Every structure is written in structure tokens, then in C-alpha cells.
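Internal ticket #5521
Category: modeling
Description: The requester needs a full-assembly model to guide mutagenesis choices. All entity lines are attached below as received. Residue total reported by intake: 466.
Assigned to: D.W.
Attached entities:
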Amino acid sequence: MNFLSVDARLWKLFFVLYKLAEMGAGSRTIKVSTEYLAERIMASQQTASRYLIQLEKTGWINRDIRPEGCLIRITDSGMAKLKKLHSSLRLIMEAEYPPSVTLEGVVFTGLGEGAYYVTRDGYRRQFIEKLGFDPYPGTLNLKLTTEYDMKTRSELETYPSIEIEGFTDETRTFGSVKCYPAIINNKVKGAVIFAMRSHYNASALEVIAPNFLRSQLKLKDGNKVKVEALILP
Amino acid sequence: MNFLSVDARLWKLFFVLYKLAEMGAGSRTIKVSTEYLAERIMASQQTASRYLIQLEKTGWINRDIRPEGCLIRITDSGMAKLKKLHSSLRLIMEAEYPPSVTLEGVVFTGLGEGAYYVTRDGYRRQFIEKLGFDPYPGTLNLKLTTEYDMKTRSELETYPSIEIEGFTDETRTFGSVKCYPAIINNKVKGAVIFAMRSHYNASALEVIAPNFLRSQLKLKDGNKVKVEALILP
DNA sequence: ATTACTACTCACCGAGTAA
DNA sequence: TTTACTCGGTGAGTAGTAA
């Protein structure tokens, strides 16, 4: 995912890197004694010394040991890590909507009309164009059970979606559909669809994917399924 | 200085907070199992559980334990911490100049003409106005000894400074002076001054302060003094 | 399923100290 | 003065397990 996940040791190192940046080691070579650094990071001189050694090994700083102290300069690699955290934080702080929303539901068998709608050419062409896949003719129906999931489903509907336009053929009119790209059970790419006038109420969810999810994920009625719906930035 | 200094334990907690924000817990209540969080932070389920308990105690998240997992929402206090880190990083990343520069030198006795210049009314009025203090009539002279300090001194001269304008009185012309507010020996506020045409070369530094530094800091010739020159943002 | 307690291990921290 | 080694104690992380 990103370096912050690696392990607890790196978090601590990264914190020291940040402190060095605060002292200006990002834009010039600074002189720091391990004693002084120790004070700034609230640790012992020995620990500060160890951190500097580890930071150098990790490649985040250059270190030049002098009789009067260490000359420290953060490397490009170290600055890149700081920049990465900065831009991640920017995304988090400025985001109007959460990056994704995770729902859980239980498989149930619907009326089978999903296949009919999904295969209408007016829809299908837009799925291919806007979602990037040709959906398997049929939808996976999930029943939402907890209060949290139902609340989240209705929140999701308020977030910006991929809009599949309605159309009219010889016989009738088809309404517009809202889609959210989704990851099903952490593995399969697909989409959550909200038909504007669905037969199901707020406690159900329809999912489409390129393949037959029931066989691809070995699902049977009653199985629990996790769906991570991705929200457009 | 700021909360990031408090201790290593808070840093680890803070990174978990960041991870939760990444999952959207900053803008809505999310459901996370301790198992899932454990995976994201590369730790055990037990550790993830402990972190959530500590985060709640610290007041950075609200937690609602359900049979299916925990409902987590970052509190205003938690978001404020994330914002603080974000803006600190922004300053670091966008700064053209380091926030400050630390120099070390050894006290020596000069020609005593510092007192004459500092007390010229044309300078003195500007010191009071632009530095915020009435300088003691005299300068503390420091001899820079290491290569690092001399290099840093000349770097400092390239950074934006407080400009004391030159002037002319009945008898002669006085040149302009560059100043940097400074902290002497981590305690006393004063300023570093660079007279445009100084008698001293690049290996000396002149410091002024409201009081007589030699007595205030119990300094004698040969004592080492640390000066942190602050650079304007 | 979950969360989170207890018990144990081990890695990290810092005192002492060398260079 | 510095940095950074060894080493012993301690607190953090995890396995087992209860609820």
C-alpha cells in the first residue's frame, strides 16, 4: 500500500525524519549533535544516535560525522517520503467525500430480471464505455442486514456517481442508473448499480461484474459478501 | 513545541489515526473490524484493538462497539491533529529557505567600535522599530571556527533579512545593515547583524541584544556561543 | 462472528562507558 | 567535547483464550 504500512520501526524513523525536516535539513545541510536531536525527539542521546544510523541505512539522510556533531541532509528519497505523506494528507483533508465505502450483505435470489435489464443494448454500451467492462448478464443481489449498512447505502447514493443515461426503445422507456465501481470480496472488480426505480428497497444492493460472480466467488444464497464501492474523486 | 514531540507512543497512535482517515473515518462513521485494521497497519488483531482503545482514550476517535465490528469516527480533536501535521508539512515542503540557521562561535574582543555604530540615532531608531528592542550599546563578537559555520554564515547572508537603511549625518555616511532576529544560547532574544562593509571577514559574526550579553550570559573571551538566526518566512 | 483480557517473549531504550 | 558500543531492564506486541 505505502511505506507507512511497513512496520512500527519505520514509523518512528519517519517521525525523526520529519523532525529533521522541521530543523531545515530538507533544504540545506544542518549540524545537529545527537544530544540536541535527542532533546527534540524526547529520547536519549544513544537513541538519537541509533536513529541517525538507521535513517542513513534506510537512505533517507546523508550523514557526515564531525568532531563537533553530525552534518545532516535529507536525501531526495527522504524528501519524497515526506512529500508522499503531505499529498496523502492533502487528499484526506480536502476530500469532500470518503474515498470509498464498504458494505456487507447476504446473497439472495431475486426475480431474475437483472439479466434482462443489463443486456439491453442502451445500457450495455454505456456500461462498457463508462465502467470499462461488459457485464455478465445478471446481477448479484445482496440483502443489507445491519443498520450501519443501510445507512451507508443511502449515504452512498448522495455521493457523485457514474451516470448511465436512460433511453427509449420501440417498446418502452428505461430509466437512468447510478453506478459506483466496486471491489467485491477484496478481489473482483465490478460495480454497484442503483436503478432509479428499483424493485428493491433501501435494504438491498445490486452488483454487476464482467463474470458470473456466484461461480467466480463460489457464492450461495445466505453467504456474506463484502463490497467496496469507490467514490469518484 | 507541538504534540508530535510528546513521545513515541503517540506517534504510533497518530499513524493509526492517519490510517483511519485514509479509510474515510474523517468524513463519516466507518465500520472496521480490529482484524481488518490490524492488516492495514501490519500488526496483530490484539494490537489493533489496543490502539483503538488508546485512540478513544486520547480523544481522537469515537468508537461504538458492535457485534459485527467497531463503528469509528475521528473526532474534531483528531482531525485538528491531522490538519496540524498537514500544515507543518506544507510549510516544510513549500519553504524556499530554512526556518532558521544555527551558528556557533567563540567570543572575542573587538575594537569596541560596535558601541559607536549601534548608538547612532539613525540606526538605533530602526533597530527599535524593526527588531522590537533598543540594543545595548555594544556588539558581541563571535569568531567562527569550523568550515560548517563559515559556510552557513555566507548562506545566511543570501536569505531574506530585515534591512536597516543607511543614512548620512553632518559628518559622514553610514551604510545599510542586514539583520536576522536570533536566539543566543537558546535563551536570549537578540539579532545577528551584517554591516555591509564590516571590518570583520566571513569568519566573524556580530550580535546585538537588549542587554549586555557578556554579563547576562556570563561570557568571557574564548567561550563558545550558539546563535540561532531566524529567517523570515 | 466479534472484542479484548492475561501471560509471555522479545526488541527497544537508555545507563555506563570506550574511543 | 563528540559518537556509538555493550548489556540489562522494561514496556510493547502477540498467542491463547474468554466473553
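Resolution: model delivered.
Comment from assignee: Residues 100-230 of chain B form a domain with the Elongation Factor Tu (Ef-tu); domain 3 fold (CATH 2.40.30.30).
Ticket closed.
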